[in-house]
Amino acid sequence: MSGVQNFFGGGYPFHWMYQALFGKRFTFEDVLFVAKTTTLKPNQGNMPMETDGVTPRELRPKCIVCGPWQFLMGVMLNAVGLSGPGAEQLLRRNSWQDREDGPFMISFMSITKGADEVESVRLHLEEFKEFVKLLAEQKFKSRMILQINVTCPNVGATQQSKARFLQECQGYLALTEQYLPGILVIFKVNVYTDIDTLVKLSSHPQFAGVCVSNTLPWATLTRWQQIRYFPSSIFTGRSPLYQFGGGGLVTVTFSVDSRALFSKSFTASTPSFTNVSGQRACFLILKESEG
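-> structure tokens emitted (291 positions)
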């Protein structure tokens, strides 16, 4: 999941509490680093940042809800909204370029909105083109994989028609092939994403798989799920993050040894499903890759 270790792998200020509690057992040593999703330009989002642009100003951000009950249930509600300084500023720091500890992912999302689906797809691809051109100018010491976030609900992303979604994702792959030949692409989606569309995308030589970890918009949850995970909604009838648009639900559904993604032993797999709270859950599509 992108963002667990922030933009550069240093984590977050509250991690010191877990380190104090668990000592050396709290470690990211065997975790593939996936940078927090960035936008092209600076994006304020809903989480105030320090002047460095990457450190949350609040120890417990108001746009995240995870109390003792949610912790026990393995869920969280967030409406961060991709707060960050933007790809241009992040790349100037040369942290990603200087990584020497093996493969890692840079996660990106186009967020420019158009008047309709057609215009939004065009603007998203124009924004992505600028991003991959920036990446093409960089020299990375370790293998970089590109994660494209296409369904984050906290920046106003809505469920597109299957045709438009396919068109946009095919555009991302074409631009990656043009400016970053040989770079693997993983799409970050949620469980509502059409499976057949993802299978169609898998024929592209740079398509490596999908990460199904994006949050589920509050409005898409059943009333029972809303009450079960956030009992206060019994009385309020609304999301604890209503002031931020409702937010999205994060739930622990599966785990995968990420190192397998980058071995030559990958085999093609049929999408598999896990039933969590009555909903389709996570799946992963992998294909053989050399290098």
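The chain is about 25% helix and 15% strand.
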